[in-house]
Amino acid sequence: MLRQVTLEDIRSIGIGAGILGTGGGGNPYLGGLHLASVIRHHGPQPLIDPFQLADEALVCVAGNIGAPTVSIEKLPEGTEMLRALRLLEAHIGREFDAIAIAEIGGANSMQPLICGLLAGIPTVDSDSMGRAFPEIQMSSFLFDSAATAAPLAMVDAADNAAVLPAAISDRWAEKMARNIAVSMGARAGLVGTIMSGAQLKASGVHYTMSLAHQLGCRVIEAQAQKRDVPQVVADELDGQVLFRGKISDVHRRTTAGFARGSVRIDSFTPLAPPDKSGGSLHIEFQNELLIARVNGAVAVTTPDLICIVTAEEGEPVTTELLRYGTRVAVIAVPAPPQLKSENALRVVGPGAFGYDVAFRPLPGGVIGRRPKGS
Questions:
Q1: Can you tell me whether residue 53 is helix, strand or coil?
Q2: How far apart are CA 352 and CA 356, in angstroms?
Q3: Predicted local distance difference test score (pLDDT) of residue 274
Q4: Which of 31, 32, 244, 298 is deepest in the core (most CB within 10 A)?
């Protein structure tokens, strides 16, 4: 596993986290530029094994809240995470010992590194999703734990700041935080989900920063060797290449603090019965890709991962970068076990997003496992 994150690691993490983010989590390229500027000034960021964290350590998660489409046009001021952290510390009257990752997806994989560097504390190699999700309560730190989303602190690129001291449920914490984020221009830094080291060890999806880095390295190697990069990604994540084709239609809107919409991908191979290959694939998203239908039949649903990468290079295509004519591959990846419990599926299963379909988990999976040889 990674022990620290250096400038040389940023590209690999950005590729891997962009793929794991299932279309969401913010633009990894822009996140990488921000992280690089902080590392140049402060040096590498220590990354610690979750099981080396003391049980009594005080930990919080850090990340951006808002619509990924906004993050391209509204760049951060740079210290939102640190200011939110200090605001929450002042509220609870205690300093944090480490930062955990809210979601490993996209730019949000890098915010806990930036926050830790600016605050002078380490980042834990563990997140709460093993992917990205659009809402705060969709977190393994909250499914079967005494931890709660609130209190939380939010700060925007100006001097606006807010503390949410309590909420009657994690879902209500999301509703209130989302309204605040919308008033802040659909983008803000958020720090919350306070927990102990023991709680993190019991509920986190571990080693996902190391996995993102390893996945990115494999993509870069496969690109240099001119291999079938989407297939390499699928093999690395114990998944499958579900579909290859060209984006033929994108419907996307930014509303209520989310990027919502759908994308249609037409196969390179025409559908010709009795051959069942070809046809089209439709994906619906709310920041992240949630449900994929091949020729009208449901093929993959949340919480399993639906990942779009470019057909030749295997680079991640986030929801805000979906464009007509782009040649892509769609990869289906098994979700970590923390997302498949009965309690978890109430919050992150297809029914939580309004889809009246049963969740049929993909077999296998590597997300959350300790990297081999570490």
A1: coil
A2: 9
A3: 43
A4: 31
Q: How far is CA 243 from the centre of its chain?
A: 22
Task: Using DSSP, state whether 178 is helix, strand or coil.
Answer: helix
Residues whose CB falls within 8 Å of the CB of residue 353, separated by 6 or more in sequence, listed in order? 286, 290, 291, 302
- CA distances from residue 231 to 222, 243, 321 in whole angstroms, order as listed: 10, 11, 22
The amino acid at 69: T
At how many degrees (to 10) do helices 208-224 and 10-20 cross?
100
226 CB-near residues (< 8 Å, 6+ apart): none
Instruction: Give the span between the Cα atoms of 51 and 62, in whole angstroms.
Output: 20
Taking only the tens place, the pLDDT of each residue in 275-315 is 455 799 999 999 899 999 999 999 999 999 999 999 999 99
Q: Output the pLDDT for position 262.
A: 96
CA 35, 252, 127, 189 torsion-angle sign: positive
Count, residues in the chain:
374
**What is the identity of the amino acid at 274?**
P
Cβ(268)–Cβ(246) below 8 Å: yes
Bridge pairing between strands 161-164 and 187-196: unpaired
The whole-number pLDDT of residue 280 equals: 95
DSSP string covering 272-326, please? Answer: BTTB---SEEEEEEESEEEEEEETTEEEEETTSEEEEEETTT--B--GGG--TT-
Residue 350's pLDDT is 97
Question: Which parts of the chain have pLDDT scores under 50?
Answer: 272-275
